[in-house]
Amino acid sequence: MDEIRSFSRVNRHIDTWPLNYRLGMWAWLLQRITGLALVVYLFMHIFVISSAVWREGGGSFDRVLEHLQSPMFIAADLLLLAAVVFHSVNGVRILLFDLGIGVRTAKVYFWLLMAVAAALVFWGVFEALPFILGTGLREPLVGV
Q1: Given a cut of 90, is residue 80 above it in pLDDT?
Q2: Residue 84's CATH number
Q3: Percent of the chain whose predicted confidence (pLDDT) is above 90
């Protein structure tokens, strides 16, 4: 009878303290967080664009776009870029993992794809930096 162990009697050490999470748990958690953040952003984006389009007065959409081209919003767009790139690259990793590719070398694939993600985000920062510092376009791209 002692040989048969039920699931409830198995001594499993489940540590829920975030500092003790392993790499796979962090990847899973960040995938969920970025997914939720992207859904929230999508609804905010739809709300802002639709409210600017449907307001009375023809220039409201142009004013919203001018406001969204400020350095603060361009810097916030970099956070969006980081979330999109991480979510998509980690999604590709999960897809490969589900197909059986890289199962034994999951950590190597994770860090390799995160290096690709970091390179893409750094490229985005490099391209956006002139606009954040105010040395990019002299006039907003409104009404072009």
Answers
A1: yes
A2: 1.20.1300
A3: 35
**Global confidence as pTM:** 0.75
Domain presence at residue 60:
yes
How far lies 85's CA from each of 18, 92, 131, in Å? Answer: 23, 11, 20
Q: Other CB atoms closer than 10 Å to residue 122's CB: what's the count?
A: 10
Q: What are the φ/ψ torsions at residue 79 (nearest 5 degrees)? A: -65, -40
In a domain, 18, yes or no: no
> Which residue carries 């899973």 as its tokens?
28
Q: Who's near 82: CB < 8 A, 6+ residues apart?
A: 121
CA 89, chain centre distance (Å): 10
Place of tokens 């004013």: 63
